[in-house]
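Progress note, sequence design subtask.
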């Protein structure tokens, strides 16, 4: 999927091509976004901006994704793009763009902001397996490598039961925000063969090692993803723990 086994996790309104390029000395993957693709999610994003959150709101979100991925064409990092949608059409178009760039299309079933949940996006997808699987199939059929970003501690949601459903639908990767339930990563690992990226609190060797011991294939860094000290520390730990020292760029 990517080497080194460190990913940069998307940050609303901040995770663009420049951000990915800045972390490319340490990470093997960077998830741009999140990008709201359709009218309901874009309206929700505008409401988020109105209460002082950063959001990407280009006039044409699909063209924006294409431009951002093009800007990373000469960068030694595999890009991904985290997207929010309530409809299949824009998702399929964006997946085609991602496939053309060799990028990962990441479906956002993670955001818990009220505005996005109210329109049926973000973590509400975790409780709607059929719709989430439909999105995965659409992106996979368009030729994209598909990741799904999920979170633990959502009432009534069993990620270990959901993971094989997403795998059957065509997902390649599951990006798990473990919150305060790190052991769920082990349950998901036992339930599927998806490439598993673990997120939340990754700052040093100890936190990276914990997730690897639970069965994660890689880890991601969120808020400190613009801090080279954290990225260097985690990257060096992963190189040592996975025996891929040669994969870490100087």
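Output:
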């Amino acid at each position: 999927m990517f080497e080194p086994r460190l990913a940069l996790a998307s940050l609303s309104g901040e995770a663009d091509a420049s951000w990915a390029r800045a972390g490319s000395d340490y990470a093997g993957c960077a998830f741009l976004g999140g990008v709201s693709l359709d009218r309901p999610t874009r309206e929700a994003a505008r409401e988020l901006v109105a209460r002082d959150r950063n959001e990407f709101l280009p006039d044409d979100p699909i063209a924006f994704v294409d431009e951002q991925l093009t800007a990373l064409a000469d960068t030694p990092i595999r890009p991904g793009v985290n997207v929010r949608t309530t409809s299949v059409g824009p998702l399929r178009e964006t997946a085609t763009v991602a496939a053309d760039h060799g990028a990962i299309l990441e479906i956002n079933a993670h955001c818990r902001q009220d505005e996005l949940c109210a329109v049926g996006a973000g973590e509400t997808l975790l409780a709607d397996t059929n719709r989430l699987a439909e999105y995965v199939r659409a992106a996979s059929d368009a030729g994209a490598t598909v990741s799904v970003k999920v979170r633990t501690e959502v009432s009534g949601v069993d990620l270990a039961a959901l993971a094989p459903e997403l795998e059957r639908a065509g997902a390649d990767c599951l990006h798990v925000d473990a919150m305060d339930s790190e052991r769920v990563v082990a349950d998901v690992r036992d339930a599927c063969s998806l490439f598993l990226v673990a997120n939340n609190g990754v700052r040093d060797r100890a936190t990276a090692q914990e997730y690897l011991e639970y069965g994660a294939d890689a880890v991601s860094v969120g808020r400190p993803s613009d801090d080279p000290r954290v990225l260097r520390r985690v990257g060096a730990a992963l190189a040592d723990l996975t025996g891929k020292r040669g994969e870490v760029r100087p």
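The first strand starts at residue 6 and ends at 8. Work on this subtask will continue into the next period as scheduled.
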